Amino acid sequence: MSRLTSQTKQQVILVLLVTTAVLAGLYFAAIRFQQISLAAVQRQTQTVEKKREAMLKTVQSAARISCELTNITRALSAGEAEVASGDLTAWMVSTIRNFKRPYPIEIPQFSTIVLEQNTAAAESPYQQVRMTVAGTAYYFDLGQFVADFENRYTTIRVQNLELVPASSTGSTDPEKLFFKMDIVAAANP
Fold this sequence. Notes:
54% helix, 24% strand, rod-shaped
């Protein structure tokens, strides 16, 4: 470049500057715009792919959800089969008498039933029925009966259990207890 005249040098520099400006303009006007558009399309593609994967998981879990729904429906049907219905007094008495057969306890007294709003589950479609029963039993036998009864019937609860020595009620066995308890069951009147 030392042999070039100053005017030629200026022209070469000017051509280099113009070429650089044109290339920069092309980069920012066309190439950079395309890169930004491509990045946006890639983001959209990733979003759509995530949605597709979520839908595939949902479709794949449909069989499992259907199986769970079937199991829950069976459990609900089994639970509803244990709900008191029809003649509530007869249902309560027969349920208690049938269950107590293998237990050495005596339940001669059944009160009349009281139908009331369900206090166990606030938004339950069922009402509840309360019956007071009384009888005599040994402590261990009564405890086993109550535990087994509540475990067997998930819609029935024992409440207000009162125990006094049976000797105060006229029994000759000093180890027997007189009990009185409320049995509360879900009812579909």
